[in-house]
Specification:
With about 900 residues, the protein is of the alpha/beta class. The chain folds into four domains: about 160 residues, Calcium-transporting ATPase, cytoplasmic transduction domain A (Distorted Sandwich), CATH 2.70.150; about 280 residues, Up-down Bundle (Calcium-transporting ATPase, transmembrane domain); about 120 residues, 3-Layer(aba) Sandwich (Rossmann fold), CATH 3.40.50.1000; about 160 residues, 3-Layer(aba) Sandwich (Calcium-transporting ATPase, cytoplasmic domain N), CATH 3.40.1110. About 50% of the residues lie in helices and about 15% in strands. The strands form three sheets. An eight-stranded mixed sheet has the order 8-23-22-21-9-18-20-19, with helices on both faces. Strands 10, 11, 12, 13, 14, 15, 16 and 17 form an eight-stranded mixed sheet that branches. A hairpin with a 2-residue loop joins strand 14 and strand 15. It starts with 10 loop residues before the first helix and ends in a 5-residue tail after the last helix.
Length: about 900
């Protein structure tokens, strides 16, 4: 039985892995009903039905049921539902038969349904959009099926599949190796070990190694990465049936980083709950004490609490993210994780490697020198042997060597003269790699180890030099001369790799890092990696957008400094990985601020720098595409990769660029800021508007002999305003806003509310005064206290109608007034969807008191001339808000 039935690492799982690791290759194939030639299409279908899909399912899965629950179970909809239940009890269940009314409950349930259904639809759209976009960048694996090798999505892998693996691949499932060639695997994603270990198909676990299953030599686990070499394996567990399925999920692309924005939304929820718990009882008490009708006071307090609830917030956040991701995809930017968009927009530091981002991603071998700086075919031949026969990721340097050798040498003859025996793969601490070969028979099968690597690392393992055909000791003087030559070429913008060799190294099968010693240093390989023409302009735009670009590279200082100068970076201060050693935390925190170029870094160094920047209060992005970039990408607030990156980089990325270009990155950042701004716009405007309404209600409740508005009318007002706000994701942001990174903080919200909430209350009070002392007495025929009961009813209905219309229009106009710091309709304009939605809601709300709904909603018939009063109120309201904005911005940098 292959299916996993218990928790991770249980005895049954371990027993299965132990059994497969110890049995022969043919026994494993027989167990899985598989063949080394791969499965047939028919068997693939059968195995998928039996064992399921290669997907790690969790309670967090993007199921429609989860989306439905998330859409309706939000702090805001829960508040509405609780209030609806209270209203149901007070207005219907415990009310006298003649006074029973479900209108308030129906309106609140309608608001919940509008918010929940819209949010659900947007979440499903979001999920579908992400899935369709991810098909453009999905991670694939090479499976042997029907006797042919074919690229399939990793999710399509089934038990029994035979998978071919190479350097840079992520292992798609738990596998038993059938064959291997110099296969080195990194298990850092599972055990944190940075050094890759060799996996050998023919080697079984040793005695006493039973419980050390992670290091079984012939087993590969899902989520680990092939660093070098190649192998063929058969899948014995997939998805949640893998030994480390849960752990692989926790460190995979499905990680959801809690962004600052997520934390901010939670803070707002707490703030609103607190305000509701304070204000609603206060409104209830004031109205109960002043009017004597405690039941109506309770219902009105419930309606007031609803008014404090921005029930459309989840919908608007989701709509913003979906719209932003689609817009970014049009510019070559694929968003894998929606909640990363806000971090993308608020990033103020972008860390990136040099190669391919600032440079042209095409390295050219300019020179192949001996130690006298003379062109040498021998140097090119040795470097070709090293690059051609190594089975790790053939990077740009290897490709440049192979291309140059193909133009200048007879590579067919070289391949006939040498055959590979073994290799010592590259790692980022040694910064070199070696290949061991044997000469052809006429040279008696002499073994030859050829090593290439960074200059200082090669000098560290060399004891001799080859000069003019002579083997001489590597003296201090010769060492200094070599480094001077390297520095001189570096200053010319050339990247230098040194070459060394050793004749007749250790016996076959025993080669390791320890064999890289006593080498004969023989020459230089000089590469040119020219900067992109667009890099300088793109960096200037990023700087103008308030983003500091920091280069984190494994290359040396001279080359990086030269490229930095060419693209306009400040190269006055450059730190290397060695400069970070033995420094205090405070010193390191200062170093990462004052320096924008870090060289000769290990993957651990890159991660450390990013964490320090985050501790310093920055929102940090990291752009990478290699195996060594994965740890840094996981540490960054937002990680960016490219479609051509290795599997592990794409798995770690939040955002993937279809083109490795800083211009694309810059465009994506601006879209992220737009998404962030439109979300914040709704939060700030709605909170200040609601706060102003609550102040008005408290004042009116204290002095008016009746409720300032009926609960049902208040709910309709909130419904119309909330629905119009659904247009905000389609609004624009000013170029000023997009030119600077914005970080999310709830600390400024109270100040914003206290500035702009009372501003609207000023005009509410003016409206109350005009309605109570002028307009209503004139229409009804006397002051409220002198009227008969029927006239008082008409007076109250007219008052409610007047404030309903004025309140609705001021709420709609505040969107235009506060969306930008400039004067609305003259210096700044909302987009057509926002203008149509806000004016449309205002018109609908104005028509309702003149329609068939007037009587059931208890509205009165105001004369059309009242609309001139509304217009005057709106003009002065916009002018006063603009004046208040001027004072607010004297002490605050941003409005939204």
């Amino acid at each position: 039985m292959l299916r996993k039935t218990g928790d991770l690492g249980n005895g049954k799982d371990l027993k299965l892995v132990q059994t497969i690791a110890k049995e022969s290759r043919s026994e494993t194939l027989a167990r899985l009903h598989a063949s080394s030639d791969g499965l047939s299409s028919k068997q693939v279908t059968k195995n998928r039905e039996e064992y399921g899909s290669n997907e790690i399912t969790t309670k967090q899965g993007n199921s429609k049921l989860r989306f439905l629950v998330e859409a309706f179970v939000t702090p805001f909809t829960l508040i509405l539902l609780i209030l609806a239940i209270v209203s149901l009890c007070s207005d219907y269940l415990f009310a006298p038969k003649g006074d029973r009314d479900l209108s308030t409950v129906i309106i609140m349930v309608t608001m919940v349904l509008i918010s929940g259904i819209t949010s659900y639809v947007q979440n499903v759209k979001s999920s579908n959009a992400v899935n369709s976009l991810l098909k453009l960048v999905s991670v694939t694996t090479a499976a042997v099926r029907d006797g042919n090798e074919q690229e399939i999505a990793t999710s399509q892998v089934v038990v029994g599949d035979v998978i071919r693996l190479g350097a840079g691949d992520m292992v798609p499932a738990d596998m038993r190796l059938l064959s291997s060639k110099d296969l080195f695997c990194s298990s850092s994603s599972l055990n944190g070990e940075s050094n890759p270990v060799e996996k050998i198909a023919s080697k079984k676990p040793s005695i006493g190694q039973d419980n050390d299953y992670l290091n079984y030599p012939n087993i590969l686990y899902e989520g680990t990465t092939i660093v070098s070499g190649s192998g063929l394996g058969v899948v014995f567990a997939i998805g949640t049936d893998t030994m480390f399925g849960k752990l692989a999920h926790d460190i995979s692309q499905n990680d959801v980083k809690n962004t600052n924005f997520d934390a901010g939304i939670k803070s707002i929820s707490k703030l609103l709950l607190t305000m509701t718990l304070v204000i609603a009882p206060l409104v209830f008490l004031i109205n109960g004490l002043t009017k004597g009708d405690w039941l109506n006071a309770l219902v009105f307090a419930i309606a007031t609490a609803v008014g404090l609830t921005p029930e459309m917030l989840p919908v608007i956040v989701t709509t913003n993210l979906v719209k932003g991701s689609i817009e970014m995809s049009k510019h070559g930017t694929i968003v894998k994780k929606m909640n990363a968009i806000q971090n993308f927009g608020s990033a103020d530091v972008m860390c990136t490697d040099k190669t391919g981002t600032l440079t042209q991603d095409k390295v050219v071998l300019e020179r192949h020198y001996d130690l006298n700086l003379h062109e040498s075919k021998k140097i090119l031949e040795l470097s070709y042997l090293n690059s051609y026969y190594q089975t790790g990721m053939k990077n740009l340097i290897d490709k440049a060597i192979i291309e140059a050798a193909g133009d200048e040498l007879d590579i067919n003859e070289i391949q006939r003269d040498y055959y590979k025996i073994d290799e010592i793969p590259f790692d980022f601490s040694r910064r070199r790699m070696s290949v061991v070969m044997a000469n052809s028979d006429h040279k008696h099968g002499e073994h030859l180890l050829v090593t290439k690597g960074a200059a200082e690392e090669m000098l560290g393992v060399s004891t001799k030099v080859e000069v003019d055909g002579q083997i001489l000791p590597l003296t201090a003087a010769r060492r200094d001369k070599i480094m001077a030559q390297v520095n001189e070429m570096n200053d010319d913008g050339l990247r230098i790799i040194m070459l060394g060799y050793k004749n007749n190294p250790a016996p076959v099968g025993e080669f390791s890092v320890t064999d890289e010693n006593d080498l004969i240093l023989c020459g230089f390989l000089a590469f040119l990696d020219p900067p992109k023409e667009s890099a300088k302009a793109a960096l200037a735009r990023l700087k103008a957008d308030g983003i500091t670009v920091k280069i984190l590279t494994g290359d040396n200082e001279a080359v990086t400094r030269t490229v930095g100068l060419q693209v306009g970076l400040n190269v006055d201060t450059v730190y290397s990985g060695s400069d970070l050693v033995d420094k205090s935390h405070e010193e390191l925190a200062k170093m990462v601020e004052e320096c924008n170029i870090f060289v000769k870094l290990s993957p651990e160094d890159k991660t450390r720098i990013i964490n320090l920047l985050k501790e310093n209060g920055h929102t940090v992005g990291y752009m990478g595409d290699g195996i060594n970039d994965a740890p840094a990408m996981k540490a960054a607030d937002v990680s960016v990769s490219v479609d051509t990156a290795v599997d592990i980089a794409k798995e770690s990325a939040d955002i993937i660029l279809l083109h490795k270009d800083l211009n694309v990155l810059e465009e994506g950042v601006r879209i992220g800021r737009k998404v962030f701004g439109n979300t914040l716009k709704y939060i700030k405007i709605t909170l200040s508007s609601n706060f102003g309404n609550i102040l008005s209600v408290l004042l009116a409740s204290s002095f008016l002999p009746f409720l300032p508005m009926l609960p049902l009318q208040l709910l309709i007002l909130d419904l119309l305003y909330g629905t119009s706000c659904l247009s905000l994701p389609f609004d624009s942001m000013s170029s000023d806003y997009l030119s600077q990174p914005r970080t999310w903080s709830t600390k400024k919200l109270p100040k914003f509310m206290f500035y702009f909430g009372p501003t609207s209350s000023v005009f509410d009070i003016i409206t109350f005064g005009m309605l109570y002392f002028v307009i209503c007495p004139e229409l009804v025929g006397g002051n409220f206290s002198t009227l008969a009961p029927a006239q008082k009813t008409a007076f109250i209905a007219l008052f409610h109608t007047g404030w309903f219309i004025v309140s609705l229009w001021t709420q709609e106009m505040v969107i235009h007034a506060l969306r930008d710091h400039r004067l609305p309709f003259i210096k700044q304009h909302a987009t057509p969807p926002v203008t149509l939605a806000t004016f449309g809601a205002g018109v609908i709300g104005t028509i309702i008191p003149f329609s068939f709904l007037a009587e059931p909603l208890q509205f009165g018939q105001l004369p059309l001339s009242f609309l001139w009063f509304v217009l005057v109120i709106l003009i002065f309201y916009i002018l006063l808000t603009t004046w208040v904005k001027h004072f607010y911005l004297k002490k605050e940098q941003f409005l939204i």
